[in-house]
Specification:
Pfam families: WDR55. Belongs to the WD repeat WDR55 family. Keywords: Developmental protein, Nucleus, Repeat, WD repeat. It is found in: Nucleus. The radius of gyration is 19 Å and the shape is globular. It is mostly beta strands. A hairpin with a 4-residue loop joins strand 7 and strand 8. Helix content is 2%, strand content 46%. It has a domain of 128 residues: Methylamine Dehydrogenase, Chain H (7 Propeller), CATH 2.130.10. The relative contact order is 0.15. It starts with a strand and ends in a 61-residue tail after the last helix.
Length: 357
Amino acid sequence: MEALHEELPFDLDFHPSSPLVVTSLITGELCLFRYGPESQPERLFSVKAHKESCRAVRFVDSGKVILSGSADCSVLASDVESGKAIARLEDAHGNAINRLVCLTETTIATGDDEGCIKVWDTRKRSCCNSFEVHDDYISDMTYVADSNQILATSGDGTLSVNSLRRNKVRSRSEFSEDELLSLVVMKNGKKVVCGTPSGALLLYSWGYFKDCSDRFLGHTQSVDTMLKLDEETLVSGSSDGVIRLVGILPNRIIQPLAEHSEYPIEALAFSNDKKYLGSISHDKMLKLWDLEELLNGPQIVIGDEPAEAGSDNSDDDSDDDAMDVDLATASSKGSRSKKAGKGQSSSRPASDFFADL
C-alpha cells in the first residue's frame, strides 16, 4: 500500500488504536490517512499546520490529538477528527524543533537544532525539564521508562542520558568521528545502538556510555532511522533506500526486507498491532508494508550485499551493565551539519500551550 505526497515527508506516526497514519511535510503540512488490508491509504485531510517545515509528529491523548514540531520553533496540537488547531505553543524553543517524542500520557519531549531538550507536562501546562547537553541538532530521542531517563543522539557525535527524576545529565559519551543519527535500546536495556552516516552501528553498554563497546560495519550507507523489532533484532532504514533486518549480538545483517526506493529513507514506524511497517522517503511516498510478509517472504537481493556482515566484537555480550557509572560530561570537538530551515529565537512565554487540551 502506498500514497504519494506532493512534497517531501519528514516524519510519520500510527494511531494507537485505529487504522490511521499521520505524516508531516517539509511545507509545514500534516496529512492524515486511513488504511486497510484491501485498499490503498485514503487521505482524510491535509492541513497547513506550520509556517515552516514540520519535522516531527506524534499522536497523543489516546489518539485524540496530533502533536507536531516545526522549524518555526512551534509545537501544535491538532484535532484528529478535523485537523483543526486546538492549541499552539509559538516559541517552544529558541531554535528549530527537530524531534518530538511521547514519554507518558501527560509528558512529551522536544529537541531542537542547537542541542536543547525540553520536557513538557500537560497537567501543569509548562516546561518541567530542560537539558542543554548537546552542541548540535538533536537527531533522535527515546524514553527509558524503568529509569525515567531520556536518551538522545546528536549531530555533535555524542549520546546523552538525561534523568527526569533528578533533572540532570547523567552521562554523555565521548565525541564520535560520525554524527549519531538514530538510536534504539536493545537486549533488555543492556545495549544502546546508534546509527551513523558512515553506515556503522555503534553499540554502547548501559552504564558505560563514555565510549562504544562495539562497532558493527554492516551497512554500506547512512543509517538514518531504526526501530526495535524485539530484544535481538531491529529494522533499519538507510540512505540507499533499503529496509533491513539486523541482528544485535551477534551482529549481522539478517536480510534486506524491502527497497522503498533509490532515495534515502526519512523515517520508519510500526502500526499499533505491528501488522504494518510504515516508511517515508525522499521519493515523497508513504508505503505501508505487511510486516509478516516482509519477514517471511523471499529474501530480496541488493547488489552484491552479503547476507551477513561482521563487526569488531560481534559475540561480545559480557559487559557489566551497571547503571549510570560515568556521570561526567564529555566535551565535544565541534559542530556538525544542521537540518535545513532553522527557526528564529524568541523570548515570549510558553506556559499556556496545554490549557485547551
